[in-house]
Every structure is written in C-alpha cells, then in structure tokens.
Amino acid sequence: ISGVQNGIAISGDYMSAASFLGIAGLIALYGYDGFLYSVGFLVAYLVVLLFVAEPLRNSGKFTMADVLAYRLRQRPVRIAASISTLTISLFYLLAQMAGAGALVSLLLGITTDAGKSLTIAAVGGLMIVYVIVGGMKATTWVQIIKALLLMGGTIFISFLVLLKFNFNISSLLSAAQESSGNPNFLAPGNRYKDPVDLLSLGLALVLGTAGLPHILTRFYTVPTARAARTSVNWAIGIIGAFYLMTTFLGFGAAALVGSTAITESDKGGNSAAPLLAQYLGGGADSLGGTVLMSVICAVAFATILAVVAGLTLASSSSFAHDFYGNVVKKGKATGAEEVKVARLATIVIGLLAIVLGILAQKQNIAFLVGLAFAVAASANLPT
User: Fold this and answer.
1) Residue 164 has pLDDT above 90, yes or no
2) Which of 65, 112, 170, 264 could be joined to 322 by an S-S link, Cβ 3.0–4.6 Å?
3) pLDDT mean across residues, the chain
C-alpha cells in the first residue's frame, strides 16, 4: 500500500462516527465545550508525526506489543499490551455500535429501545462477516472509499450551512447562541464546569491518538519509513480540513435544527448531522430533505463500517499474535494458526461490542471515545 493510499486510509480510520455524529452533536448541544473535541482530535496527529510514525515503521514489527517486547520482558509486556489493545478497541467499538443504532433508527423511524437494540445487533453481525472475509486489504479499501465519501458529504453540508448565513461565520455563531437560549453558549463551562476537566480532556485527545492500536497498525502496511511520513502528512491535511468543518456542522445544527429537536431524536445528540442535512435539503416532508439525509446517513454508515473493521482487525490480530502466538504458544504458532485464532477472536470481540453497544446507546458517542483515548494516552503512549 503506497504512502498516499495509506494516508487516506489512516484518515478514514480516524474520522469515525464519533467525529461525524458525536462531535457535531456535542457542539450543537454544548457549544464551546463540544468544539474542544474538534481541536483535540485535530492537533493530535502532530504528536503522531513527531514521535511515533517513523520509529514504528523502522522497527519492522507487526503489533504494538512487538515493538515493546523488543526492549522489555516478552511475556508480561505482551499480556499487558493485549489487554490494553482489547480495552481501547472495545470502548471505541461500543461507541461506533451506539452510533450505528442511532443512525439506522433515525433512518427507519424506529423509536423503541428493542428496535434500536436489534439494529445494533444487525450492524455488528455485518461488521464481523466483513472483517473475517476481507482482512486488512479489504479494510484499507473501505477506509479509503469512506474517507472520500465523508469529505465530500462534509464539504457539501458545510457549504450549504455557510450559504444560509451568506458565508458570515460570525452570524452563524450568533444564530447558534440565540437558538440555544443560553447566553454563555460560546463560552467554556456548559458541559465541563471545572477547567481541570477541560485540560484533562484536551490532553487525553491530543496524546491518546499516538497510542491507539488501530492507528498504530496502519504504519506496518507501508514499505518504507518515508512512506510512513508521507502517510501522516496526507492524513494531517485531510483530518485537519474535516475537523474544521465539524464546527460548521455543529453550530449549523444548533442554529437551524435546535437542541430540542436533536435531543428528541437521540438523547446523546448523535443525530445532529443527519437532521441538519434533512433541514438543508428542504425539511422533513420534502424530497430534497429525505434524499440529503439518506446520503449523509449512508456516508455515516460507511464510516462506522470502516472504523469497526479497523478496530476489530487490530484487536483480533493483537490477541492472536501477541497473546496466543507468543504467550500461549511461546512463539511456536504458525501463521495459519494465528489467522484462525484471529477469526475466532473477531467473532467474540464483535459479540462483546454488540452487547456493550446496546447498553451504551443513550450516551453521546464522542464522550465514549474519550474513554478509549484516556487509556491510550495513559498506558500506551508513555510506554
């Protein structure tokens, strides 16, 4: 896989449903405090570029535990790295599953909890089959296609939002504040009352990215260290543009849709972007509104598929290679055995993610992803 392809795939892997649905919802409901997520995710890739991409590629290893076992005691570090990878991946996965439930429910008009739970189970089943059949190459291509779709959809919606306000960002922000009914909507403190909480969240988002297992595995798919650098440069450009546009999605949804309509549809605010698309297309009963919302939901669904595939692949391969191959079999497992165990692990991890996703469906998914970033920043990056 070339550096440019990998860069687009990395951005596809990183711009998750939490970014597209969760951050737009947080900004629409909490203003400035939601916007901090965008800034944190955006700055994070500089840490990856400066400290992680090249050394990882040069190590010529396969998983994060391989790199750590190079310097530290093999058996304990592989067990710890497997547990860390599975923990982070599960937090991340349940956020995507909760997003999938909110999305499909909105699209099909499902309002009952049982119906939403069924949609999460169906989406999870689809993801498991895709990863088992497709592997890393299929996952890379779905991430590339999804990144292009997501950028196209976000640019179009951002353009329509700005058009509504004659390309005046100041009047967009004023309208969002007015619609929220909160005079402090554009000031910190609507969600995080304590400044230490804001600082802590910012640190977790900025440092956590450099410790995310599914992002780290992407650096082993390119042939050289130079290609790894190229990957990160492309990823920074695409991701930077995307997170700037989540501002227009969030504040646009606050100004045009309103927080009441957003929370009525989904308590966590995850349906802000699709509802904004519906409004911009002409409203709930118009053909334009229905088509535009469907397109945005399809893009968000592709986003969920791509990220879940990447996460499931990272966690199942870590379990098969690190725990089974090097701890249980003490390095004597064959490649075919590891692949077989990885496929079984994919099924178990997928089922776990479905159950946890059902339990977490009333949470905002950007908040859930924050939990994964906290573990990655605290455990993986320092090590």
Assistant:
1) yes
2) 65
3) 85
